[in-house]
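Ticket #4471: structure export looks truncated?
Reporter: QA, pipeline team
Priority: medium

Steps to reproduce: submit the single chain below to the structure queue and open the exported record.
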Amino acid sequence: MNRFHPIRSILCALLLAQLILPAARAQSPENTDPVTALLATMSVEEKVGQLFIVPFVGNSVAPGSDIFTLLTEYKIGGVVLQSSNSNFINNPETPRNITRLTNQLQAQTLANKNIPLLIAIDQEGDGYPYSRITGGVTPLPSPMTIGATWNVANARTVGRIAGQELAAMGINLLLGPVLDVLNNPHPAGRGDMGTRTFGGDPFWVGAMGQAYIQGVNEGSNGKIATVAKHFPGHGGSDRLPDNEVATVDKSLQALKRIELAPFFAVTEPDDPAATTDALMSSHIRYRGFQGDIRQFTAPISFDKTGMSTLLSLPEFSRWRSDGGIIISDALGVPAVRKFYDPTLKTFPHRRIARDALLAGNDVLILAQFDLDNIWAQQFENIKDTVSFFRSEYRKDSNFAARVDESVARILRLKLKLYPNVEPNALTNDPDVALAAAGQSEQAMNTIARQSETLLYPSPEEFAQRLPQPPGVADKILVVSDSRMVRECFTDECQPFEPLPHDALENIILSLYGPETTGQVLPENIASITFSELKQVVVGSLALATADEEDSTNTMNYSPAEVTALIQQADWVIFAALDLNVDRYPDSDALKLFLAQGVNSLYNKKLIVLALNAPYFLDTTEISKLTAYLGLYSKTEPQLELAVRTIFGEMSPQGAPPVSVDGIGYDLPTVLSPDPNRPFPLAGSDTGGTSAAPPVTLTFSAGPILDHNGNPVPDGTPVQFVATYADGQSATLALTDTVAGMATTAPVTLNRAGDITIAAYSGDAKNATDLRYS
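Actual output as written to the record:
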């Protein structure tokens, strides 16, 4: 229950009346649109402020704070919360503390502008770094974990949990889901999206995205807007745009088949609840975008022609006309800095923001908005940019019209989120938020079980190689890619390991140690890090990463002790993350060990747990393993499941949602119709007919299943063929599947005599032919 002084409630009502009454007076029989009416009451300052989402440092909204200034003097319309800016510290009290902050932000906004504030956050899953809130909330899996279940209901469940927990904290703008298609993984790490994506097939990514968005709407009761990213897709780019401008070398037609397809799915679905409210434009340029293979676009977030071409596509035009919003990615990331000044000597913040607006972005995220990642400089750049926009609005009617167009979209979204603004409608109870968070671990355990994948060997070989789990006399060595990081650089933010080096050891002992089954003795299990392994493999400790968020890794064992642990171990369990030696120099320790440690591996059980993407090992490396398991996330449900699988309690159920070259798993082939799974075929009169020709019938085939046993993606072609008694054949129809089924339009058979009907899809055929005479 909310606790407010009666006088405060009266003041809130009066403030809200200031929002509603002027808009009501402005309406007329000819103009009853509340957005138009509200826009007419707004000052230039209020209009311009609505365009921006800004970060801020600290958690104080008191007078004199930077965010107080931005809200009151610069009329900013949105903020983004980040633990890296000390807006909150992740601990068990985080949901309560965030709720208090969002209440203060909304109260300050209403007291000055009377228009609700957009409060945004990234919460993609898999903990740090892509889930900003990790304290006190449900440990959401990565999108690829969901993709490995091949069950859209799981995407809906995760979306529902995220929506419920975030809405209870007062967050109303979710910067997700990620709808990039990882159809061409980059195992070396350059430009690789990894587990941030649902997978490598555009149909399945779109289906998962639809379900996730629907879940967010359900869980939040329509109080959270989603922002599908990174439009128009950079799963096939050559680098990550966080670092420098990425390039996708594809024509528009090619983009429509792969990269754009998931965005089509969430801008024109049959269910409005599965429609995204916004798309986040990416800082990616395209070559051959409009036919000329020698022509590069600017980063699409700054390219008016390219953005207009995309948004005028029929698949987007209706969504756009219905109020769909384009939100820029952070406008101060290194890719933008390098694009505007390759020498990195200047940061033309005014031009960057203006170009982004004129390109078609409605909302501009002014994050990292300086050259040196110094908040004081960002703060000045933000204020100056807002002032510049105000000036441009007053002197340039075309610029003013462009601003008004975007502000109208933003207001329409805010009125959708808050259709009936009442006293305390924007206020949430911190205690309720805390109680609502972190209550869905059972659902996460279910998803973990459905996603875990046996990458190598086959299930039959797996049972032979691991007939017995570790025993009481067995020595176990756990090697984890543990990395010391910091979310912020205040005294409250201490270095921590997103994957604790002893996490698996603790789980093993809690499940099978002396206090439970007694299968594992504490003295027979040890844990080391990839850093400690690498110093043995290469003979010296790798240089610490230059990434500013990493600190020196803790070394618990000397090289001699690590060598002894390896030699004595009966089981060596590797907990592997991604392979990115530029950022994490020790992330290649497993590959180096497998390349050099052949003699020391004899008679050992070697288990690799892929807690990130499953494609970083090659065929030779995988062949040296006892087992290779794909978990796709490093959250506790995934880790516990992996341990239970090693000890024989669980069996992997999932399948990779991306190609994995090291095991010969080619996703397009896997998703094609399986010839070993014949499908049903039905006609409108399967009992036969003796009517004289011509006879008109309809036929249906399916469900047609892929090699994983799932319905093939929508759009899979199916050919229906008639064969006559004299041996002549004729194609009756060529149609595409929907939900694994293909149904023809009415087909006319003109010839008399015995006729056999069959259906073919790729190499697959129906189980039983239909016969007519």
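Status: closed, not a bug. The export was complete when the record was re-opened. Leaving a note from the reviewer for reference: Residues 6-26 form the longest helix (21 residues).
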